[in-house]
Amino acid sequence: MALFRLPYSFPSTLPSFFPKILLPVPSFSISCSSKSTPNQLKNNDDNSNPDNPKKPKRLSEQSSWEAKDSEGRDYLYRLGKEADNMNIAVGARAGVIDDLFTGNFLGKDSDIVFDYRQKATRSFEYLQGDYYIAPVFLDKVACHIVKNYLAHLLNVKIPLILGVWGGKGQGKTFQTELIFQAMGIEPVIMSAGELESDRAGEPGKLIRERYRTASQVVQNQGKMSCLMINDIDAGLGRFGNTQMTVNNQIVVGTLMNLSDNPTRVSIGQDWRESDITNRVPIIVTGNDFSTIYAPLIRDGRMEKFYWQPTKEDIVNIVHRMYEKDGISKDEVVSIVETFPNQALDFYGALRSRTYDRSISKWIEDIGGIENLGNKLLRRKKNEELPVYTPPQNNY
User: Fold this and answer.
1) What is the top-level taxon of the source organism (predicted)?
2) Can you give the pTM of this predicted structure?
3) CA spacing 20 to 30 A to 330: which of 20, 98, 198, 307?
4) CB distance 276 to 74 below 8 Å
5) Residue 258 CB partners (closer than 8 Å, separation 6+)
6) pLDDT band of 150, cuts 50, 70, 90
């Protein structure tokens, strides 16, 4: 912008070529700027008039970018505060974000993590068949879940976490999943591998997010839910000279905080006063809880349940396992007595080994190991595999 100013009066001494009679020259300014349209001038006049305030124009009627939260802050402010400035949790979905940002080159649904978020819960459709649930195990897990859902009605201190521990391969996780299926629970399941990260604080934040996801299942779908962490001692336990990392400390602190205050869970750095979370129980499994930080496993926060199946439980579970093979219960008792003091996964591996001889014969029938690639992967769509005959078990 260029600006020129002329003085109100000239000096008294003037060159000879100027005329003798001079009139006063008013002061004025010339500014060079971009061309303004009449509509812009009209909008400026409307906004400058305090008697006629004009509502600011929205991006679109369905825009969520200008939506305000309970504290009066817009969506982008909350996203920047809570998402670590990495916008991977919110993608361009038609009808949710403005269509301007949902280009056709990625399709209308270009949110890469939407499918993962939709499948955060487990529904156990793959558990087909009649399985045996130990009555003691069922009573402990069901009682813990019901107590936590009735915590606001009971005048007692109820631990939020149930720790199921015992020997390896005793079916702790599988029995728990069978109970979830029987009770119609859709849990959010984590593993010990998610309790460590190369970024400090990420596992603790992940636990809080998964806990809130389970709470939203209760609120939005009307189904019971819980948070389950498998093999927690593998992620938090201290074995020999292993190091204690920052993430280990944050995860332990997060679980302790959830146990002490299960209805208020923060995701970002700020607490939201109006954000109340439904209480959902937490179930963890492990082999040795003595390796975990002691204040976390105290009675007020975690209720411990040692699972050691009896001989009757083992016989019933193995019988359901071998039922499809036509093995009677007496034969199962004979198997258990032949191999005493074995974990449940031993009998599952024993059943799997009975198929090895039949599979070896099947490989020979299709022409040997040289033809495995053609038969298994590169066969035609309408070409069927050779018939496989299961073994005849005789115990």
Assistant:
1) Eukaryota
2) 0.65
3) 307
4) no
5) 160, 207, 208, 211, 265, 282
6) very high
